[in-house]
Amino acid sequence: MSTHSMLDIVVNDILRVVTPLQEDWEIRFAIINDFRSIVESVESLRGATVEPYGSFVSNLFTRWGDLDISIELSNGLHISSAGKKQKQTLLGEVLKALRMKGGGSNLQFISNARVPILKFKSYRQGVSCDISINNLPGQMKSKILLWINKIDGRFRHMVLLVKEWAKAHKINNSKAGTFNSYSLSLLVIFYFQTCIPAIFPPLKDIYPGNMIDDLIGIRSDAENLIAETCDANINRFISNRARSINRKSVAELFVDFVGKFAKMDSMAVEMGICPYTGKWEQIEDNMIWLPKTYAIFVEDPFEQPQNTARSVSAGQLKKITETFARTHDLLTSTNQNQISLLSNLAPAHVIRCITRPYGGGYIHPTQPQVQRGVAYFHPTQPQVFRPTQPQVQRAIRPLQPQSQHHFQNASQGTSSNSSFSTGQIQARKGVSSNSSSSKGHTPVHRGQQMWRPKS
Asked: Quick one: pLDDT band at residue 404, thresholds 50, 70, 90?
């Protein structure tokens, strides 16, 4: 068996196991509805909505992924705002309600964070939940990550694979001074922008502005402006018949990905990673990045000049770089087998779902494996990369990725007022909502440059 075909098998096995099943979607919708009932019991949050964001909305979560939820305060048709102190107070009241109603375990209130967060574990399969207040920026970032998957479905597969690999090497934990999942997703985007031939354009060609600055005024207008801009530019990029097509497999892309960042620590001394321009940028040339006080700079393309990797420490950056380099050495070595590949690319709980002890060999599962009375999970999906998932009725938006299913809450008879990619998730089947649209855009200054939307 060739090295590439062996790696392809291992990568496919990992993706098959970590890709969410229908029950994983249903559980998270049920958690959202559970939490909504708790929020509705808090008098000071009367009229607030409960809306998911993060990897669940961008469809970049794994079977074991966390769930991010934002409590959006009522402000009529306009985008609501709240100061840090108000957010701390409201989350404190939610904490009391969770304790009173037994809404979860392992409650933790991180009040002094840049964005105050309330964390707990749901009693539904122990899914970890992060609660914030008025996180519309997080919702819109998540939607754009969902939308760009329309350009190339390998993006989702790469992000899932990179997350599992990073967890296996303990470099996917911002609390421990390594990358958070958002930074890892941006690294994949940056690699897709800089590989040859490129798969993604610079994100300024998708949304030519600082998105965070455009979340003002009437919410439906602001959301539709962003959606329409992204829709037009994504379709323009896809329809460009002159662009070269990168036809590498996910496994081949992953080899190149870890090789690209194998000298990350030395590059980070003078250069920052900028998915907005799709380039390594000189830190000294970017006035909005200075003063530079970070081990590595991975700019948020939708909230410039925020550094999504600000938690990465100098010591951990060295460890991260060494991990990239060691993995690249392994994947380009002729001395490898499926066990060594799997142990390098996946954490223990994923490995246990793929293999079972049998004379030390690697078992490629085709049915549930049983060892000492324990059933080893193996999804029986007809296609590796096309998971079934419940569909949620969404309002018609200008951008609907062709390969992306509609989400639908499988919990019949429950109600939801949670904003998703359109502004409202309707948990009751067959219900949808509509949003108005607006035109126009404010130019954004970045140093001496100015970008305007393409007409």
From this structure: very low
